Amino acid sequence: MTCRSIRFPHDMDTARLLAWLDGRKDPDDAVVLRVRAILADVRKRGDAALRDYTRRFDAPGFPSRIAVSAKDIKAALAAISKADADILREAITNVRDFHARQAEQSWFTTAPDGTILGQMVRPVDRVGLYVPGGQGGETPLISSLIMNAVPAQIAGVESIAVMSPPRADATLNPYILATAALLGITEVLRAGSAWAIAALAYGTKSIQPCDVIAGPGNIYVATAKALLVGEVGIDMIAGPSEILILADESANPAWIAADMLSQAEHDPLAAALCITTSTDLAARVNAALAEQLPRLARHELARKSLENWGAIVLVDSMEEGLALVNRLAPEHLELAVADPFALLGSIRNAGAIFMGHHCPEAVGDYFAGPNHVLPTLRTARFSSALSVQNFCKKSSIIAASGAFVARHGEKIARLARLEGLEAHARSVECRLQGK
Protein backbone atom coordinates (compact mmCIF):
# COMPACT_ATOMS: atom_id res chain seq x y z
CA MET A 1 0.00 0.00 0.00
CA THR A 2 1.71 3.20 -1.18
CA CYS A 3 -0.73 5.58 0.54
CA ARG A 4 -3.66 5.31 2.89
CA SER A 5 -7.16 4.50 1.69
CA ILE A 6 -9.97 6.39 3.40
CA ARG A 7 -13.66 5.63 3.25
CA PHE A 8 -15.19 9.05 3.88
CA PRO A 9 -16.68 9.86 6.33
CA HIS A 10 -16.69 6.42 7.97
CA ASP A 11 -12.90 6.05 8.43
CA MET A 12 -12.14 9.74 8.84
CA ASP A 13 -14.62 12.61 8.99
CA THR A 14 -13.90 16.15 7.76
CA ALA A 15 -12.54 17.41 11.08
CA ARG A 16 -10.09 14.50 11.41
CA LEU A 17 -9.05 14.79 7.77
CA LEU A 18 -8.27 18.49 8.18
CA ALA A 19 -6.42 17.86 11.45
CA TRP A 20 -4.31 15.18 9.77
CA LEU A 21 -3.29 17.46 6.87
CA ASP A 22 -2.61 20.35 9.28
CA GLY A 23 0.23 18.22 10.60
CA ARG A 24 2.29 19.41 7.61
CA LYS A 25 2.61 22.83 9.20
CA ASP A 26 6.07 23.30 10.67
CA PRO A 27 5.86 23.39 14.48
CA ASP A 28 9.56 24.09 15.18
CA ASP A 29 9.92 27.37 17.10
CA ALA A 30 13.69 26.89 17.03
CA VAL A 31 13.65 27.77 13.33
CA VAL A 32 12.08 31.14 14.14
CA LEU A 33 14.81 31.90 16.68
CA ARG A 34 17.56 31.00 14.23
CA VAL A 35 16.02 33.08 11.46
CA ARG A 36 15.60 36.09 13.77
CA ALA A 37 19.31 35.90 14.57
CA ILE A 38 20.21 35.71 10.86
CA LEU A 39 18.02 38.71 10.03
CA ALA A 40 19.63 40.77 12.79
CA ASP A 41 23.13 39.73 11.71
CA VAL A 42 22.57 40.67 8.05
CA ARG A 43 20.98 43.97 9.07
CA LYS A 44 24.05 44.78 11.15
CA ARG A 45 26.90 43.41 9.01
CA GLY A 46 25.44 43.51 5.50
CA ASP A 47 27.62 42.05 2.76
CA ALA A 48 30.10 40.60 5.25
CA ALA A 49 27.35 38.48 6.81
CA LEU A 50 26.16 37.36 3.36
CA ARG A 51 29.64 36.20 2.43
CA ASP A 52 30.15 34.41 5.74
CA TYR A 53 26.90 32.46 5.51
CA THR A 54 27.45 31.63 1.85
CA ARG A 55 30.98 30.34 2.47
CA ARG A 56 29.75 28.29 5.41
CA PHE A 57 26.71 26.68 3.80
CA ASP A 58 27.05 26.85 0.01
CA ALA A 59 30.41 27.75 -1.52
CA PRO A 60 33.56 27.60 0.64
CA GLY A 61 35.57 29.59 -1.89
CA PHE A 62 32.92 32.28 -2.42
CA PRO A 63 34.52 35.51 -3.72
CA SER A 64 33.91 39.03 -2.50
CA ARG A 65 31.61 39.98 -5.37
CA ILE A 66 28.00 38.97 -4.75
CA ALA A 67 26.54 40.12 -8.06
CA VAL A 68 26.85 38.12 -11.27
CA SER A 69 28.44 40.14 -14.06
CA ALA A 70 26.47 41.17 -17.14
CA LYS A 71 29.05 39.28 -19.20
CA ASP A 72 28.34 36.01 -17.36
CA ILE A 73 24.56 36.45 -17.72
CA LYS A 74 24.91 36.97 -21.45
CA ALA A 75 27.33 34.04 -21.78
CA ALA A 76 24.91 31.69 -20.03
CA LEU A 77 22.24 32.31 -22.66
CA ALA A 78 24.76 31.44 -25.36
CA ALA A 79 25.79 28.32 -23.44
CA ILE A 80 22.38 26.59 -23.35
CA SER A 81 20.98 24.89 -26.43
CA LYS A 82 18.91 26.86 -28.92
CA ALA A 83 16.08 24.35 -28.46
CA ASP A 84 15.97 24.97 -24.71
CA ALA A 85 16.17 28.73 -25.19
CA ASP A 86 13.25 28.57 -27.62
CA ILE A 87 11.16 26.60 -25.08
CA LEU A 88 11.93 29.18 -22.41
CA ARG A 89 10.99 32.02 -24.77
CA GLU A 90 7.66 30.37 -25.58
CA ALA A 91 6.88 29.75 -21.91
CA ILE A 92 7.70 33.37 -21.07
CA THR A 93 5.43 34.56 -23.89
CA ASN A 94 2.55 32.43 -22.62
CA VAL A 95 2.96 33.67 -19.05
CA ARG A 96 3.28 37.27 -20.26
CA ASP A 97 0.12 37.03 -22.40
CA PHE A 98 -1.91 35.69 -19.48
CA HIS A 99 -0.71 38.25 -16.95
CA ALA A 100 -1.13 41.18 -19.34
CA ARG A 101 -4.88 40.74 -18.87
CA GLN A 102 -4.50 41.36 -15.13
CA ALA A 103 -3.14 44.89 -15.50
CA GLU A 104 -5.35 47.51 -13.84
CA GLN A 105 -5.81 51.14 -14.84
CA SER A 106 -6.10 54.21 -12.67
CA TRP A 107 -9.63 55.65 -12.73
CA PHE A 108 -11.48 58.82 -11.76
CA THR A 109 -15.11 59.87 -11.39
CA THR A 110 -16.50 63.41 -11.36
CA ALA A 111 -19.58 64.79 -9.62
CA PRO A 112 -21.74 67.75 -10.68
CA ASP A 113 -20.34 69.84 -7.79
CA GLY A 114 -16.81 69.44 -9.15
CA THR A 115 -15.62 66.77 -6.72
CA ILE A 116 -13.24 64.23 -8.24
CA LEU A 117 -12.69 60.81 -6.70
CA GLY A 118 -10.50 58.05 -8.00
CA GLN A 119 -7.82 55.43 -7.57
CA MET A 120 -4.27 55.73 -8.83
CA VAL A 121 -2.48 52.44 -9.56
CA ARG A 122 1.31 52.46 -9.42
CA PRO A 123 3.94 49.71 -9.38
CA VAL A 124 6.21 49.38 -6.39
CA ASP A 125 9.69 50.77 -6.99
CA ARG A 126 11.79 47.67 -6.43
CA VAL A 127 11.21 43.91 -6.20
CA GLY A 128 13.46 41.11 -4.99
CA LEU A 129 12.86 37.63 -6.42
CA TYR A 130 14.20 34.55 -4.66
CA VAL A 131 14.94 31.52 -6.85
CA PRO A 132 15.92 28.24 -5.14
CA GLY A 133 18.93 26.57 -6.69
CA GLY A 134 17.56 23.06 -6.37
CA GLN A 135 19.64 20.01 -5.49
CA GLY A 136 23.20 21.30 -5.38
CA GLY A 137 22.25 23.86 -7.98
CA GLU A 138 21.58 21.17 -10.56
CA THR A 139 17.77 21.38 -10.56
CA PRO A 140 17.23 25.14 -10.80
CA LEU A 141 13.68 26.43 -10.41
CA ILE A 142 13.67 28.36 -13.66
CA SER A 143 9.87 28.22 -13.86
CA SER A 144 9.67 30.06 -10.53
CA LEU A 145 11.85 32.83 -11.91
CA ILE A 146 9.50 33.23 -14.88
CA MET A 147 6.34 33.11 -12.76
CA ASN A 148 7.60 35.76 -10.35
CA ALA A 149 9.36 38.08 -12.77
CA VAL A 150 6.70 38.37 -15.46
CA PRO A 151 3.85 39.78 -13.31
CA ALA A 152 6.29 42.25 -11.75
CA GLN A 153 7.31 43.39 -15.22
CA ILE A 154 3.70 43.65 -16.38
CA ALA A 155 3.00 45.76 -13.28
CA GLY A 156 5.72 48.15 -14.45
CA VAL A 157 8.34 47.51 -11.77
CA GLU A 158 11.52 49.15 -13.01
CA SER A 159 14.05 47.60 -10.60
CA ILE A 160 14.11 43.81 -10.19
CA ALA A 161 16.82 41.87 -8.37
CA VAL A 162 17.10 38.09 -8.58
CA MET A 163 18.73 36.24 -5.68
CA SER A 164 19.72 32.55 -5.82
CA PRO A 165 22.14 30.39 -3.81
CA PRO A 166 25.39 29.54 -5.59
CA ARG A 167 26.67 26.08 -6.31
CA ALA A 168 29.73 24.74 -4.47
CA ASP A 169 32.01 26.38 -7.06
CA ALA A 170 30.31 29.78 -6.38
CA THR A 171 28.57 29.87 -9.78
CA LEU A 172 24.86 29.85 -10.57
CA ASN A 173 23.28 27.30 -12.83
CA PRO A 174 23.44 28.63 -16.41
CA TYR A 175 19.70 28.05 -16.86
CA ILE A 176 18.91 30.56 -14.11
CA LEU A 177 21.18 33.11 -15.75
CA ALA A 178 19.89 32.34 -19.25
CA THR A 179 16.29 32.75 -18.09
CA ALA A 180 17.18 36.07 -16.47
CA ALA A 181 18.73 37.16 -19.77
CA LEU A 182 15.60 36.20 -21.70
CA LEU A 183 13.51 38.16 -19.21
CA GLY A 184 15.77 41.20 -19.58
CA ILE A 185 16.86 41.08 -15.93
CA THR A 186 20.40 42.32 -15.38
CA GLU A 187 20.72 42.25 -11.56
CA VAL A 188 21.40 38.69 -10.41
CA LEU A 189 22.88 38.07 -6.95
CA ARG A 190 24.42 34.99 -5.35
CA ALA A 191 23.08 34.17 -1.88
CA GLY A 192 20.52 31.82 -0.42
CA SER A 193 18.29 30.98 2.52
CA ALA A 194 17.23 33.48 5.19
CA TRP A 195 20.31 35.68 4.73
CA ALA A 196 19.34 36.31 1.11
CA ILE A 197 15.84 37.38 2.16
CA ALA A 198 17.32 39.66 4.84
CA ALA A 199 19.59 41.34 2.28
CA LEU A 200 16.69 41.96 -0.08
CA ALA A 201 14.62 43.46 2.75
CA TYR A 202 17.20 45.59 4.55
CA GLY A 203 19.71 46.22 1.78
CA THR A 204 23.49 46.09 2.09
CA LYS A 205 26.33 48.13 0.68
CA SER A 206 26.02 46.30 -2.67
CA ILE A 207 22.27 45.54 -2.66
CA GLN A 208 19.48 48.10 -2.61
CA PRO A 209 16.53 47.24 -0.33
CA CYS A 210 13.34 46.01 -1.96
CA ASP A 211 9.70 46.93 -1.43
CA VAL A 212 8.31 43.46 -2.25
CA ILE A 213 9.98 40.05 -1.95
CA ALA A 214 8.58 37.07 -3.84
CA GLY A 215 9.62 33.53 -4.58
CA PRO A 216 9.53 30.06 -2.99
CA GLY A 217 12.07 28.50 -0.68
CA ASN A 218 12.71 26.19 2.24
CA ILE A 219 11.43 26.68 5.79
CA TYR A 220 14.17 29.25 6.49
CA VAL A 221 13.15 31.33 3.47
CA ALA A 222 9.46 31.07 4.33
CA THR A 223 10.09 31.98 7.97
CA ALA A 224 12.24 34.98 7.03
CA LYS A 225 9.50 36.29 4.74
CA ALA A 226 6.89 35.79 7.44
CA LEU A 227 8.97 37.68 10.01
CA LEU A 228 9.47 40.58 7.59
CA VAL A 229 5.76 41.15 6.93
CA GLY A 230 5.09 44.78 7.78
CA GLU A 231 8.58 45.88 6.76
CA VAL A 232 8.27 44.70 3.16
CA GLY A 233 5.52 43.22 1.05
CA ILE A 234 5.69 39.50 0.29
CA ASP A 235 3.91 37.28 -2.21
CA MET A 236 2.55 34.82 0.34
CA ILE A 237 3.65 32.50 3.13
CA ALA A 238 3.73 29.26 1.19
CA GLY A 239 3.65 25.81 2.72
CA PRO A 240 4.41 22.40 1.20
CA SER A 241 2.95 21.69 -2.23
CA GLU A 242 -0.31 19.78 -2.64
CA ILE A 243 -2.57 18.28 -5.25
CA LEU A 244 -6.15 17.05 -5.01
CA ILE A 245 -7.68 15.08 -7.89
CA LEU A 246 -11.45 14.70 -8.03
CA ALA A 247 -12.09 11.72 -10.31
CA ASP A 248 -14.99 9.71 -11.63
CA GLU A 249 -15.05 6.31 -13.34
CA SER A 250 -13.99 7.87 -16.66
CA ALA A 251 -10.53 8.75 -15.31
CA ASN A 252 -7.35 6.95 -16.33
CA PRO A 253 -5.79 5.46 -13.14
CA ALA A 254 -2.26 5.56 -14.55
CA TRP A 255 -2.62 9.26 -15.31
CA ILE A 256 -3.98 10.01 -11.84
CA ALA A 257 -1.10 8.13 -10.24
CA ALA A 258 1.39 10.06 -12.36
CA ASP A 259 -0.19 13.35 -11.32
CA MET A 260 -0.14 12.42 -7.63
CA LEU A 261 3.53 11.52 -7.92
CA SER A 262 4.25 14.84 -9.64
CA GLN A 263 3.56 16.51 -6.29
CA ALA A 264 4.93 13.78 -4.05
CA GLU A 265 8.39 14.14 -5.61
CA HIS A 266 8.55 17.79 -4.51
CA ASP A 267 8.91 17.42 -0.77
CA PRO A 268 8.41 14.86 2.04
CA LEU A 269 5.64 17.16 3.31
CA ALA A 270 3.85 17.42 -0.05
CA ALA A 271 0.28 16.11 -0.03
CA ALA A 272 -1.25 14.10 -2.88
CA LEU A 273 -4.90 13.11 -2.63
CA CYS A 274 -7.45 11.57 -4.96
CA ILE A 275 -11.16 11.78 -4.17
CA THR A 276 -13.36 9.43 -6.15
CA THR A 277 -16.77 7.81 -6.18
CA SER A 278 -15.40 4.68 -7.88
CA THR A 279 -14.18 1.74 -5.78
CA ASP A 280 -12.63 0.18 -8.89
CA LEU A 281 -10.75 3.36 -9.78
CA ALA A 282 -9.45 3.72 -6.23
CA ALA A 283 -7.94 0.22 -6.33
CA ARG A 284 -6.42 0.75 -9.77
CA VAL A 285 -4.87 4.11 -8.79
CA ASN A 286 -3.23 2.47 -5.78
CA ALA A 287 -1.84 -0.28 -8.02
CA ALA A 288 -0.56 2.32 -10.52
CA LEU A 289 1.18 4.23 -7.74
CA ALA A 290 2.97 1.09 -6.63
CA GLU A 291 4.03 0.36 -10.21
CA GLN A 292 5.24 3.88 -11.08
CA LEU A 293 6.90 4.91 -7.83
CA PRO A 294 10.08 2.78 -8.08
CA ARG A 295 10.85 4.22 -11.53
CA LEU A 296 11.26 7.78 -10.20
CA ALA A 297 14.70 9.22 -9.52
CA ARG A 298 13.26 10.73 -6.35
CA HIS A 299 11.37 7.59 -5.38
CA GLU A 300 12.42 7.59 -1.72
CA LEU A 301 11.31 11.20 -1.26
CA ALA A 302 8.04 10.54 -3.09
CA ARG A 303 7.45 7.35 -1.08
CA LYS A 304 7.79 9.24 2.19
CA SER A 305 5.39 11.91 0.96
CA LEU A 306 2.77 9.36 -0.11
CA GLU A 307 3.07 7.27 3.04
CA ASN A 308 2.64 10.25 5.35
CA TRP A 309 0.45 12.65 3.37
CA GLY A 310 -1.05 10.75 0.46
CA ALA A 311 -4.54 9.30 0.36
CA ILE A 312 -7.21 7.89 -1.91
CA VAL A 313 -10.54 9.00 -0.49
CA LEU A 314 -13.68 7.10 -1.46
CA VAL A 315 -16.92 9.11 -1.24
CA ASP A 316 -20.53 8.09 -1.81
CA SER A 317 -21.39 10.85 -4.29
CA MET A 318 -19.83 13.56 -6.40
CA GLU A 319 -21.70 16.16 -4.30
CA GLU A 320 -19.96 14.82 -1.20
CA GLY A 321 -16.65 14.97 -3.03
CA LEU A 322 -17.21 18.58 -4.07
CA ALA A 323 -18.09 19.58 -0.51
CA LEU A 324 -14.85 17.99 0.69
CA VAL A 325 -12.85 19.75 -2.02
CA ASN A 326 -14.14 23.11 -0.82
CA ARG A 327 -13.24 22.30 2.78
CA LEU A 328 -9.73 21.21 1.81
CA ALA A 329 -9.21 24.28 -0.46
CA PRO A 330 -6.29 22.70 -2.34
CA GLU A 331 -3.39 24.45 -4.03
CA HIS A 332 -3.85 22.39 -7.22
CA LEU A 333 -7.21 20.86 -8.07
CA GLU A 334 -7.62 18.51 -11.01
CA LEU A 335 -11.15 17.68 -12.20
CA ALA A 336 -10.50 14.29 -13.79
CA VAL A 337 -14.11 13.74 -14.74
CA ALA A 338 -16.09 13.27 -17.93
CA ASP A 339 -17.58 16.79 -17.82
CA PRO A 340 -15.40 19.12 -15.71
CA PHE A 341 -17.32 22.25 -16.69
CA ALA A 342 -20.45 20.78 -15.11
CA LEU A 343 -18.61 20.83 -11.76
CA LEU A 344 -16.73 24.10 -12.10
CA GLY A 345 -19.53 26.26 -10.72
CA SER A 346 -19.49 24.22 -7.49
CA ILE A 347 -15.81 24.93 -6.78
CA ARG A 348 -15.37 27.79 -4.32
CA ASN A 349 -11.90 27.21 -2.92
CA ALA A 350 -8.87 26.20 -5.00
CA GLY A 351 -5.62 27.87 -6.02
CA ALA A 352 -5.72 26.61 -9.62
CA ILE A 353 -8.21 24.30 -11.32
CA PHE A 354 -7.12 21.91 -14.07
CA MET A 355 -9.98 20.83 -16.28
CA GLY A 356 -10.40 17.33 -17.68
CA HIS A 357 -8.27 14.29 -18.41
CA HIS A 358 -5.68 15.98 -20.61
CA CYS A 359 -4.70 18.80 -18.26
CA PRO A 360 -2.16 17.64 -15.65
CA GLU A 361 -0.92 20.11 -13.07
CA ALA A 362 2.47 20.28 -14.82
CA VAL A 363 0.81 22.11 -17.75
CA GLY A 364 0.17 25.03 -15.42
CA ASP A 365 3.48 24.72 -13.60
CA TYR A 366 5.52 25.43 -16.68
CA PHE A 367 3.82 26.54 -19.83
CA ALA A 368 0.14 27.38 -20.09
CA GLY A 369 0.38 30.92 -18.72
CA PRO A 370 -1.42 31.18 -15.35
CA ASN A 371 0.83 31.62 -12.35
CA HIS A 372 2.03 28.57 -10.45
CA VAL A 373 2.69 30.48 -7.22
CA LEU A 374 -0.46 29.42 -5.38
CA PRO A 375 -1.93 29.42 -1.88
CA THR A 376 -1.32 26.25 0.15
CA LEU A 377 -2.47 24.74 3.44
CA ARG A 378 -6.14 25.67 2.83
CA THR A 379 -5.35 29.38 2.40
CA ALA A 380 -7.10 29.25 -0.99
CA ARG A 381 -10.20 29.95 1.12
CA PHE A 382 -9.12 33.60 1.25
CA SER A 383 -6.13 34.16 -1.03
CA SER A 384 -5.23 33.86 -4.70
CA ALA A 385 -2.45 33.04 -7.13
CA LEU A 386 0.44 35.45 -7.50
CA SER A 387 -0.58 38.20 -9.90
CA VAL A 388 0.27 41.62 -11.24
CA GLN A 389 -1.56 43.11 -8.25
CA ASN A 390 1.08 41.73 -5.86
CA PHE A 391 3.51 44.24 -7.34
CA CYS A 392 1.20 47.27 -7.37
CA LYS A 393 -0.08 49.71 -4.79
CA LYS A 394 -3.21 51.83 -5.05
CA SER A 395 -3.66 55.39 -3.84
CA SER A 396 -7.11 56.86 -3.30
CA ILE A 397 -7.61 60.28 -4.92
CA ILE A 398 -9.97 62.77 -3.24
CA ALA A 399 -10.44 66.23 -4.73
CA ALA A 400 -13.38 67.66 -2.77
CA SER A 401 -14.89 70.91 -4.04
CA GLY A 402 -16.12 73.81 -1.95
CA ALA A 403 -19.65 72.84 -2.87
CA PHE A 404 -19.12 69.33 -1.49
CA VAL A 405 -17.87 70.67 1.85
CA ALA A 406 -20.72 73.20 2.02
CA ARG A 407 -23.27 70.43 1.47
CA HIS A 408 -21.79 67.76 3.72
CA GLY A 409 -19.52 69.59 6.16
CA GLU A 410 -21.92 69.57 9.12
CA LYS A 411 -22.49 65.82 8.73
CA ILE A 412 -18.74 65.20 8.62
CA ALA A 413 -18.22 67.30 11.73
CA ARG A 414 -20.98 65.41 13.55
CA LEU A 415 -19.37 62.05 12.75
CA ALA A 416 -16.04 63.35 14.03
CA ARG A 417 -17.55 64.49 17.32
CA LEU A 418 -19.28 61.13 17.77
CA GLU A 419 -15.75 59.70 17.83
CA GLY A 420 -14.54 62.39 20.22
CA LEU A 421 -12.27 64.01 17.62
CA GLU A 422 -12.94 67.74 17.99
CA ALA A 423 -10.02 68.86 15.83
CA HIS A 424 -11.34 66.78 12.95
CA ALA A 425 -14.71 68.50 13.23
CA ARG A 426 -13.18 71.96 13.39
CA SER A 427 -10.98 71.30 10.34
CA VAL A 428 -14.21 71.03 8.33
CA GLU A 429 -16.12 73.79 10.10
CA CYS A 430 -13.42 76.41 9.55
CA ARG A 431 -14.01 75.93 5.82
CA LEU A 432 -17.76 76.26 6.27
CA GLN A 433 -17.18 79.53 8.13
CA GLY A 434 -14.67 80.79 5.59
CA LYS A 435 -11.99 81.28 8.26
Topology:
Layout: E1 4-7, H1 14-21, H2 29-45, H3 47-57, H4 70-79, H5 82-100, E2 107-110, E3 116-123, E4 126-130, H6 142-155, E5 159-164, H7 174-183, E6 187-190, H8 193-202, E7 212-214, H9 219-228, E8 233-234, E9 242-247, H10 253-264, E10 271-276, H11 279-292, H12 299-309, E11 310-314, H13 318-328, E12 332-336, H14 340-344, E13 352-355, H15 361-366, E14 392-399, H16 402-418, H17 422-432
Parallel strand pairs: 1-11, 4-5, 4-7, 5-6, 7-8, 9-10, 9-12, 10-11, 12-13
Antiparallel strand pairs: 2-3, 3-14
Helix pairs in contact: 2-3, 2-8, 2-9, 4-7, 5-6, 5-7, 6-7, 8-9, 10-11, 16-17
Question: Which properties best describe this structure?
Answer:
single chain; 435 residues; alpha/beta; Rossmann fold; 3 domains; six-stranded parallel β-sheet; five-stranded parallel β-sheet; 17 helices; 14 strands; 16% strand; globular
Describe the protein's architecture and organization.
The protein has helices spanning 14-21, 29-45, 47-57, 70-79, 82-100, 142-155, 174-183, 193-202, 219-228, 253-264, 279-292, 299-309, 318-328, 340-344, 361-366, 402-418, 422-432; strands at residues 4-7, 107-110, 116-123, 126-130, 159-164, 187-190, 212-214, 233-234, 242-247, 271-276, 310-314, 332-336, 352-355, 392-399. The protein is an alpha/beta fold. The strands form 3 sheets. A 6-stranded parallel sheet has the order 1-11-10-9-12-13, sandwiched between helices. The protein has a 5-stranded parallel sheet with strand order 6-5-4-7-8, with helices on both faces. Helix 5 (82-100) packs across helix 7. It is globular and about 85 Å long.
